[in-house]
């Protein structure tokens, strides 16, 4: 497993006044650095060490999100009132309910 195949991001922490390296597949891990690139490099190194340690202990590492397959379908439960409101909006907009909900997800940065 190549640790570089995991999903990383770096954010600024106002509280710490440093950049924080994160990995979606290992939510309990983080790495703080003054430089953005160093936070990413530190996080990748930490994940490499964590995966090696897991293997040494007979544990399986999580599969990288980049290697997982997605069907494009997921179910969302909502209230009947919200369902009705969305159906009305879709009808008034001349689009399917599915297309309306997809556009709303994109608007929110999902």
Topology:
Layout: E1 8-13, E2 18-23, E3 30-33, H1 36-56, H2 80-93, H3 97-107
Antiparallel strand pairs: 1-2, 2-3
Helix pairs in contact: 2-3
Task: Describe, in plain words, how this protein is organized in 3D.
With 110 residues, this protein is of the alpha+beta class. It folds into two domains: 3-66, Double Stranded RNA Binding Domain (2-Layer Sandwich), CATH 3.30.160; 71-107, no CATH class. It has three helices and three strands; from the N terminus they run E-E-E-H-H-H. It has helices at residues 36-56, 80-93, 97-107; strands at residues 8-13, 18-23, 30-33. Strands 1-2-3 form a three-stranded antiparallel sheet. A hairpin with a 6-residue loop joins strand 2 (18-23) and strand 3 (30-33). Helix 2 (80-93) crosses helix 3 (97-107). The radius of gyration is 20 Å and the shape is elongated.
